[in-house]
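anyone seen this seq b4? input:
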Amino acid sequence: MRIVVCGSIAFDYLMHFPGAFREHILPANLEALSVSFLADSMRRSYGGV
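predicted toks r here
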């Protein structure tokens, strides 16, 4: 008898950003978008479907 077990392990990284993204993204410059955001906390949990 053969048994095959398959699957994957996935993690979700949830970060909290205290501001609003719209404050940093300028609609006039979307073709040259270059931004970074500093998160004040991060939580890792099992994810996937």
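The first strand starts at residue 11 and ends at 16. The mean pLDDT is 89. kinda curious what u guys think
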